[in-house]
Amino acid sequence: DVKVTQSSRYLVKRTGEKVFLECVQDMDHENMFWYRQDPGLGLRLIYFSYDVKMKEKGDIPEGYSVSREKKERFSLILESASTNQTSMYLCASSPATSLKTQYFGPGTRLLVL
Amino acid sequence: AQKITQTQPGMFVQEKEAVTLDCTYDTSDQSYGLFWYKQPSSGEMIFLIYQGSYDEQNATEGRYSLNFQKARKSANLVISASQLGDSAMYFCAMREDGGNKLTFGTGTQLKVEL
């Protein structure tokens, strides 16, 4: 079974802090994604990566950056957390050869005070 | 313009009955994929079913089937014989030709009642 894990299920941070959200997948997938989920808005893509050190902006990249130094790990960074970044963050991965689905992690609920 | 529209924010269904969750989409691509995911209260997104734009038959996976009407650009999810465990948020999503990116709808909260 594909497994995507995220470093924290719940996280509380203060405004202005630098926040790292980590995602690891164990299926050697090329593609990895970061989404945020807000009520009434569904999931929105922040960034995705199709290879090590490669990244592309999604629909809402402002206020975020990403890092992919190893194939299995994709990090989302909030350089200076703000209250409007309080949200549920979901990581996903998929193989390059099959676009039939993405496999999601359990999500991180981030609260910025 | 929204690419994926789910017009039902919430639905109720009685146990053992069938329910249809609506999804319409907008794309100018000829090749695309449509997906349904389930998200229980635990938060994890669970892949349910996939339909390719060139697939001639409607996709089915156990109690889930996708009613694909290409001309109407709709991809409704049908859940047969609803169970209490089907209570969850359901998302429709689309992948457009050549892309890795999924675009999601806003979701439908389904509640299965006794």
Describe the structure.
- The complex is a heterodimer of chains A (113) and B (114).
- Chain A has 113 residues and is an all-beta fold.
- Chain A has no helices and eleven strands.
- Chain A has strands at residues 4-6, 10-13, 19-25, 31-38, 42-51, 54-57, 65-70, 73-78, 87-94, 103-104, 108-112.
- In chain A, strand 7 (65-70) and strand 8 form a beta hairpin.
- Chain A starts with a strand and ends with a strand.
- The model of chain A has no long low-confidence stretch (mean pLDDT 93).
- Chain B is mostly beta strands.
- Chain B has strands at 4-5, 10-14, 19-21, 24-25, 32-39, 46-52, 60-61, 64-69, 74-79, 88-96, 102-104, 108-113.
- In chain B, a hairpin with a 5-residue loop joins strand 10 (88-96) and strand 11 (102-104).
- The chains are: A mainly beta (113), B mainly beta (114).
- At the A-B interface, strand 4, strand 5, strand 9 and strand 10 of A face strand 5, strand 6, strand 10 and strand 11 of B.
Topology diagram in text:
The complex is a heterodimer of chains A (113) and B (114).
Chain A: E1 4-6, E2 10-13, E3 19-25, E4 31-38, E5 42-51, E6 54-57, E7 65-70, E8 73-78, E9 87-94, E10 103-104, E11 108-112
Parallel strand pairs in A: 2-11
Antiparallel strand pairs in A: 1-3, 3-8, 4-5, 4-9, 5-6, 7-8, 9-10, 9-11
Chain B: E1 4-5, E2 10-14, E3 19-21, E4 24-25, E5 32-39, E6 46-52, E7 60-61, E8 64-69, E9 74-79, E10 88-96, E11 102-104, E12 108-113
Parallel strand pairs in B: 2-12
Antiparallel strand pairs in B: 1-4, 3-9, 5-6, 5-10, 7-8, 8-9, 10-11, 10-12
Percentage of residues in helical conformation of chain B: under 10%
What's the pLDDT, averaged over the residues of chain B? 93
Shape of chain A: globular
Unreliable stretches of chain B: none
Number of helices of chain A: 0
| Annotation field: number of helices of chain B | 0
Strand content of chain A: over 45%
Most extensive interface: A-B, 27 and 23 residues
The total strand number of chain A stands at 11
Cα distance spanning the termini of chain B: 38 Å
Radius of gyration of chain B: 14 Å
What value does the Rg of chain A take, in angstroms? 13 Å
Order of helix and strand elements from N to C terminus of chain A: EEEEEEEEEEE
Structural class of chain B: mainly beta
Largest sheet of chain B: 6 strands, mixed
N-to-C series of helices and strands of chain B? EEEEEEEEEEEE
The amount of beta strand of chain B, in percent, is: over 45%
